[in-house]
Specification:
By secondary structure, the chain is α/β, with parallel strands linked by helices. It has two domains: about 150 residues, Alpha/beta knot; about 55 residues, tRNA(m1g37)methyltransferase, domain 2 (Trp Operon Repressor, Chain A, Orthogonal Bundle), CATH 1.10.1270.20. The chain contains seven helices and nine strands. Strands 2-1-6-5-7 form a five-stranded parallel β-sheet, with helices on both faces. Helix 1 links the parallel strand 1 and strand 2. It is elongated. It starts with a strand and ends in a 6-residue tail after the last helix. About 25% of the residues are buried.
């Protein structure tokens, strides 16, 4: 899978993609993460990518020219299933969206800044707007990093135990059940006996019941 990230702060991603699962995914050629500095595509001498709003209003707007030039170049080199703009007014990110995106070959993530991007850039190129929550960030870089992590970990062969991702919270609209490890007793708190029984059928039933119970208590909206 290839992910192209467009940003005005390319160094933001340096450490994020150099550790753990994301690093392994790139080393095993399961994912190719490419960072593009939008300022490199600005046509003016100052390499600026923002300007004042038409009609007035506080805050600058990212201009269309460098965005169009960069995305047009990328699209000339390969086909993209999605060109995503990380925006507060986008579809709220869910595990189901991540599942779908993880099956694609090529996607672009555009990180906004200031008050956002010129609407014409959205009309020309953006196929989907995604938000990571009902709040506003300084820029789209953190959202792009989160989305990349959520997608890449689902690619077959990235996680050593591929079934692990299938039992994560939200995969079936349920929260994951409680989990335990050694020791079986600590400060008087014991691991539920069923988990020590070795009876996988009963253990699976227990986990399903606990997932349902936890979801009802913490996220009943998921059951609607």
């Amino acid at each position: 899978m290839r992910i192209d990230i467009i940003t005005i702060f390319p160094n933001f991603f340096n450490s994020f993609f150099e550790y753990s699962i994301l690093k392994r995914a790139q080393e095993f050629n399961k994912a190719s993460i490419n960072i593009h500095n939008l300022r490199d595509y600005s046509a003016n001498n100052q390499k600026s990518v923002d300007d004042y709003q038409f009609g007035g209003g506080a805050g600058m707007v990212m201009t269309i020219q460098p965005i169009d030039n960069l995305i047009t170049r990328l699209k000339s080199e390969r086909q993209y299933e999605e060109i995503i703009y990380l925006s507060p007014d986008g579809d709220q990110l869910t595990q189901q969206i991540c599942n779908t995106l993880s099956t694609y070959e090529n996607i672009i993530l555009l990180c906004g800044h200031y008050k956002g991007i010129d609407q014409r850039a959205r009309d020309l190129h953006i196929t989907r707007d995604i938000s990571i929550g009902d709040f506003v960030l300084t820029g789209g870089e953190a959202a792009a990093a989160i989305l990349t992590d959520a997608i890449v970990r689902l690619i077959p062969g990235v996680i050593n135990n591929e079934t692990s991702a299938l039992t994560d919270s939200f995969q079936d609209n349920l929260l994951a059940p409680p989990i335990y490890t050694r020791p079986s007793e600590y400060k008087g708190m014991k691991v539920p006996k069923i988990l020590l029984s070795g009876n996988q059928k009963l253990i699976s039933e227990w986990k399903e019941q606990e997932s349902l119970k936890k979801t009802k208590e913490k996220r009943p909206d998921l059951l609607e």
